[in-house]
Amino acid sequence: xxxxxxxSVLLDERCDLLANRRVGVLTNGSGVLPDLTSTAEALLRxxxxxxxxAPEHGLRGGxxxxxxxAGGVDRSGVALYSLYGANFAPTREQxxxxxxxxxxxxxxxxxxxxxxxxxxxxxxxAAQAGVAVIVTDRPNPIxxxxxxxxxxxxQRTLVGLYDVPMRHGLTLGELARLINDEEKFGCDLxxxxxxxxxxxxxxxxxxxxxxxxxxxxxxAEAALIYPGTCLSEGINISVGRGTAKPFEWLGAPWLDGPLxxxxxxxxxxxxxxxxxxxxxxxAEPYTGELCEGVQPHVTDPDALRPAAAGxxxxxxxxxxxxxxxxxxxxxxxxxxxxxxxxxxxLAGTPPEQISASWAVYEQAFRERSAPVLLYx
Length: 376
Hints:
Strand order of the largest sheet: 3-4-2-1-5-6-7
CATH architecture of the largest domain: 3-Layer(aba) Sandwich
CATH class of the largest domain: Alpha Beta
Radius of gyration: 21 Å
Helix content: 25-40%
Strand content: 5-15%
């Protein structure tokens, strides 16, 4: 094993942080030790666990995206509270019997992914209740690169709760440190870093098993392109849910795959080539309908700019299919962080010009986040 996740470091070396404390645990199916023992199971053996908290998709990760989840009692007999249902942060009553909460979730390094914001909302609530938080850190599977625009205040939701780029380049622990400091939550926050990880590593370099953190993130390869292809959730195409390649197969019944692939390949975007595909999803939109479209193949992960690639895909569809295209305006603007990206696309602004305009913000975020970095 090359990298030890923070949960292993906590259990092997920092059990003092749990001694004589009433413990809550925020985790899901992605929270595993390197031998695939679940974090919940390991902590139930090692500590006085009084409550379990679950993010979107539930404690075991099998519930569909966007579906609200009820709490109850876990099969272990411990209270289970959903943070993706009636409330998105723990209540005072749910925190009353706790001294500390361990947070162990695999993030994917993209602003759109809800887990990190669930953790941030828990940290804020814990601070108000006087409960400490321990984040057991995990690698950012798409590395330390930063890309994309920020989030305007009126667009802040659970797919972008604070002002960070689409591809933020931080681990969950680092992002927790940043927001706790900037928002002055005052949480007694401890981040237990991974051992052996650095920002240039690809997931395959870590030696860790990939456990899908959510039903539509089956591989680390899907995570790599996700900061771009998820933008297409805001238009009327399938992003591959209900197929073998979610966020990699992108299409609709009215698309011409070879035409779209050729248009995108002529842009010579760094680190990616586009292949025409055909697929029949078993999830909305276009359930059971034959779709044509494209699959981005990453040829150079270091050169890839996934947000720029995803923007180019939407721009090509705007250009080729103005009559068939429709927008989920509110959702696209939430993902993009503002209405400006959509307005620029509709005005015919070249996608490379739009993505080039992000450079000032990207550099400012590098400087903002530098004080909280835990890894070289």
